[in-house]
Write a structure and sequence with these properties.
About 70% of the residues lie in helices and about 0% in strands. It is mainly α. The chain has one domain. The termini are far apart. The relative contact order is 0.15.
């Protein structure tokens, strides 16, 4: 599939960074079983904001936008500070963090998939890059907090949501839909699937123990 070169607008990258920093800080500040100071919350917020973009650019062998753009770090840090300020007001509203998380996944997934396509990456590779970009921030967040990686847990459907959105973007671009429109559809699909998984408890079957096989020695 041939895709016209489409540069990711700086405002879109900064919006994703801001949403990631906000969601990461809200999430970290709400973790009761960990004693985290203000600096720790800020670092985790920035990890969510920067993680997906960093992993995406490393896979694509591109200069990391989080390093080359001075505004990226500034916006991520400011959003993390805002998240810390808002957390006391939103600590009883769990759905805010869930919705923000879903939107962040969709936004980073759309940007990652679009960037891969614009660089000439094939459809399967672009799907992979989109998913990695979408869940990269949450992986770094969970590792920093010492929590089980969320996308590996039953019922989370992080990868399914990100993959569904990225696949829709790739399909729409293939039939000639403008990339900005396809990107919005990607974000919407990812958000709906992720929120639906939380709200309606959508999940894959849980891995159970393998059946135990007992070998008996035959009689002579």
């Amino acid at each position: 599939m041939t895709v016209a070169v489409f540069g990711i607008p700086l405002w879109a990258e900064l919006l994703a960074a801001g949403l990631g920093g906000l969601q990461g800080a809200l999430f970290a500040a709400g973790v009761r079983e960990r004693r985290i100071d203000i600096l720790g919350v800020m670092v985790i917020g920035m990890g969510v904001a920067l993680g997906g973009s960093l992993l995406r650019d490393v896979i694509l062998n591109q200069p990391p936008v989080v390093v080359w753009s001075s505004w990226y770090l500034v916006v991520a840090a400011a959003a993390a500070l805002l998240g810390m300020a808002l957390q006391p007001l939103l600590r009883h509203v769990d759905w805010v963090v869930v919705v923000l998380d879903a939107v962040v996944i969709g936004t980073f997934g759309a940007i990652g998939t679009t960037k891969a396509l614009s660089l000439g990456v094939g459809e399967v590779g672009a799907l992979l890059v989109g998913v990695v970009g979408a869940v990269g921030g949450s992986i770094i967040r969970d590792l920093l907090l010492g929590l089980p990686v969320a996308f590996l847990q039953v019922g989370e459907l992080f990868v399914v949501a990100a993959g569904a959105g990225a696949a829709a973007l790739i399909l729409l671009v293939a039939v000639g839909v403008p990339i900005p429109v396809a990107g919005i559809v990607c974000i919407v699909i990812t958000t709906v699937v992720r929120i639906g998984a939380v709200r309606f408890n959508w999940r894959f079957p849980e891995q159970g123990p393998l059946p135990r096989v007992e070998w008996r020695r035959g009689r002579a």
